[in-house]
Amino acid sequence: MEVVRTPAEAAAYWAMRMNASPCSPNDRAAFEAWRAESEANAAAFARVERALGKVDLHVSHPDIIALAQGIAESTQRRRFGPYTVLALVASTLLCVVGIAALIRSPEWPGANIVRGSAPLTYETATGERSSLRLADGSTVTLNTRSRLEVDFTSLHRTLRLKSGQALFEVAHDVDRPFVVEAAGRRIVATGTAFDVRLDAAGVQVTMIEGHVSVDEIAGDGARAQREPKENLEAGQQLIAAFGQPVAVNPADVARTTSWREGRLVFRNDRLEDVLNEMNRYSDIQLIAADDPVLRDLRISGVFDTGGTASFLLALDTAHSVQARQLENNHILLLR
Prior knowledge:
The chain is α+β, with helices and mostly antiparallel strands. It folds into 3 domains: 1-108, no CATH class; 112-252, Jelly Rolls (Sandwich); 262-334, 3-Layer(bab) Sandwich (Phage tail protein beta-alpha-beta fold). Helix content is 33%, strand content 32%. Strands 1, 2, 3, 4, 5, 6, 7, 8, 9, 10, 11, 12, 13 and 14 form a 14-stranded mixed beta sheet that branches. It has a 3-stranded mixed beta sheet with strand order 16-19-18. Strand 1 (112-113) and strand 2 (120-123) form a beta hairpin. Helix 1 (7-18) crosses helix 3 (39-57), helix 1 crosses helix 5 and helix 4 (62-77) runs antiparallel to helix 5 (82-102). It is globular. The termini are far apart.
C-alpha cells in the first residue's frame, strides 16, 4: 500500500478529494484538521489551489496540453491498481504546480500566502491578479492590492475582504452559506457570483448571477440591526459609502468586472476619478494639477490596467493634456 507522506503529496490528494462527489462533512473536517496541523500543510495546499486556478484559466497553454497528453499516454499503456491511481493523481497535481510556477506572465499572477496566519490570508501586490480555487470548489479572483482571509470549517464558509477587490464564484452548499465580510457588511450566498470592492469610499457589491443578502454587522460579528437587510439580484449593485445611506442601483456588470481581463472601461467619467482608478494598478502615480476644469474633464475609453503610457498618449491626443515627470514615480498632468 502506497502512503502519502509529504505535505505536497497530501495537498494534491486533498485537492482531488475535496472536489470529488460526494464529499461528506467528515471529509471536510478531516481536511481542515490536516491543513491546521502545520504551516507546511497550509502552504502546500495553497500552492495547489493557486496552480489549479491558473490551469482552469489557461487550459490551452502548451505546457498543460503536453502534460495532459503525457498522462493520457501513460494511462493507455499501463493498468493501475487503486493505490497507484491515487499516486498518479497526486503526481499529476504536483506537476501542475510545477508548470504554474514556471509561468510568470501578467496573465499568470499568483496571490501570496501570508505564512503563519490563521485563517489563511492571501494578498496581491500592485498590478497583480490571482485566481484561487477554494476547498469547496468555489473560485475567488483577487484584483490588485487586495487582501483576503479564508476561514473554512465543516460548519461554515467565511471570508473577510480586508482591502481591494475580489470576484467570488460560489459553489452551492445549502448547509454552509458562503459569507463574505467587508468593512462592517456581510454578504451571504449559497451559490452565485458577485464582485466586492472595498476602498476609502466604502463597500460596493455587484451581482453577476444568482442572489445574495447584505446586512450590517457589529464589531463582534453579530448583526448590527441598524439598517434593513438588502436582497440583491443579478444586475444590481449595492453601494455602502461610509457615513451615507445604502443605495441599490442597476449595475454595469461588464464595466465592473472588466478588470478580470486586464481592462478598465470609462464612460464619461471625471478625469480625477479616472486617475484614481488607473493609479490602483501601477507604481507610477498620476496626479492632476490644481485646476477644476482639468479635474472635471470627461473621459471615455478602454485602457489596459497599468497601461500608463498609452493612457497619457490618449489624453494628449484627444484633450491636449500634457504630462510632466516629477520625483518618486509621480507624473503631473497639465492643460
